[in-house]
Structures are given as structure tokens and as C-alpha cells.
Amino acid sequence: ATLPTMAIAGLVPVLPQLFAHFAGSAHADLLVPMILTVPALFVALCSGPLGYLADRIGRRPVLLASLVVFTLCGLLPLAFDSLPMLILSRAVVGIGEAGILTVGNALLGDYFDPARRRYWLGIQSTVGPPFSSAYIVLGGLLAVHSWHGPFLLYAIGAAMLVYTLLWLPEPAARASAAGADEAATGAL
Q1: How far is CA 11 from the centre of its chain?
Q2: H-state helical runs in the chain
Q3: Is the pTM higher than 0.85?
Q4: Is the pLDDT score of 184 beyond 50?
Q5: Of 7, 36, 47, 187, which residue has the fewest beta carbons closer than 10 angstroms?
Q6: Taking residues 123-139, what's their average pLDDT?
Q7: What CA–CA distance (Å, rounded) separates 58 from 52?
Q8: Axis crossing angle, helix 59-75 with helix 83-111, rounded to the nearest 10
């Protein structure tokens, strides 16, 4: 639940370095802030379609693909020094975030009854702010030597990918509903 928060919070400390590094680039005053904001645009644009896709093909495949996209594109800025490529990778990170957020919330509904769902939403609300603060501190520590440093935080996505692959099943209700949908479609 905190991975999408990391996408902004972890990079906040490096923003002055990004402005300094890309100062000679055309329109840097407009483009550098987009490094932080463009993922949110793609979350807004892609959450609905990814939610629809998760309903059609299952939560797990959409979550796994989203974690791969989030992690790989989040780490990609470690390999280049181009402002347009940085913004492009951040846009694709936003697509991964959209899948993580959408499927994560859908899984709460799939796995838990209303009372347990409220409990877990409360846990998310409780741990969110401390995690955001921790991401800012970690981003600052990783930015000490280079503006590339905070992008290492995206390696956390790899850990979540492994966890999801090994221990997060497709919800039983979703799996049986998908089977019923396929049977109904096949009967038509």
C-alpha cells in the first residue's frame, strides 16, 4: 500500500539536485517538477482500465505485471542521464502504480469481510504517514552522493514482486467468478 507513496516521497529530497543537474536543459523549470508529478497523472488515467482488466483476467496477473513495471521503470533512471527519458520512465512508473493501487484495494474487498476490511484500511491509514516520512529520509540518505541514489528505493518493488509470486493467491471468490465468466462466455 505504501509503494505508490514512495514514488513521490523518496524523490522529494533530490529535487534541488535535479534542478541543478538539468539546469542547462530546455524548459527545465517546467520539466523537472514533472519527475514528481507525472506518475500521478498516469495513475489517474490508468486506474480505471487496469481495474477493468483485473476484473476480467484476475487480480494476480495485473498485480504481478504492475509490480514488474513499477520496479523496472523505477530503477531505470539509474542507467541514464536524460531528462526526457527520466520523465518517460516516471510516466510508466505511474502505470505500475495504478495497477498496484487498484488491485491492492480490490484485494482488500476480495480477501476480507467488511469488519476485517475496515481493520486493514485502518492499518494502512496508520502506517502510511510513518512510511512516507521514512521514504523521505531514505531518499535523502541515498541522494547524498548522486541524484540517482533515491531511485534505488524501487528495489523494494522487487521484494514485493517475490512475495506476490510466492505467497499471494488469486482470491477464491475472483477465481470462481472468472471460471463462471469463462463458462458463460463459452456457452454463448
Answers
A1: 14
A2: 3-9, 15-21, 28-57, 59-75, 83-111, 114-142, 155-167, 172-187
A3: yes
A4: no
A5: 187
A6: 94
A7: 10
A8: 150
